[in-house]
Amino acid sequence: MKILTGNDLRTGAVTWWDGTNWSLHVDAAADVGEHGDEILAREEALRRVNVPYIIEAEASAEGVRPAHIKDRVRALGPTVRPDLTLKPKDPEAIDWVI
Predict the structure, then answer these.
(1) Whole-number Å distance between alpha carbons of 43 and 70
(2) Spatial CB neighbours of 29, under 8 Å, sequence gap ≥ 6
(3) pLDDT at residue 28, rounded to an integer
(4) Which of the pair, 76 or 93, is modelled with greater confidence?
(5) Is the dihedral of CA 42, 47, 48, 49 positive or negative?
(6) Of all residues in the chain, what percent are helix, strand and coil, respectively (each to 5)?
(7) What tens digit of pLDDT does each residue of 6-29 get?
(8) What is the separation, in whole angstroms, between the first and last Cα of the chain?
(9) Helix H or strand E encompassing 56
(10) Whole-number Å distance between alpha carbons of 81 and 49
């Protein structure tokens, strides 16, 4: 599975392409398959996201999980304050990164 990520141009927040727009939640990420480069070109021209790029990910019952640890950390949010992550009510959220 291939998904797109980048940072919101206005806020700097990590974002994920959901098939029509950008979401703050990796679970909303859509598999772009072989169309990633086309979507990246269009989105870069619209200037809604800063430096979007394609990454490998895995889909499971728990949701979408980026393959590389760097992007798993980006998806979760700050690791120094687990209470500020995007999954704050999940006591196991930090384990998701590892």
Answers:
(1) 22
(2) 3, 4, 5, 16, 17, 18, 23, 57, 64
(3) 93
(4) 76
(5) positive
(6) 35, 30, 35
(7) 999 888 889 999 999 999 999 999
(8) 19
(9) strand 49-60
(10) 25
Q: Which two tokens stand for residue 35?
A: 């169309």
Range of the domain at 45: 2-97
Q: Are 5 and 17 in contact (CB under 8 A)?
A: yes
Mean pLDDT of 54-63: 90
| Residue 88 confidence class, pLDDT cut points 50, 70, 90 | low
- The tally of domains found in the chain comes to 1
CA distances from 52 to 5, 17, 37, 80 (A): 5, 9, 10, 25
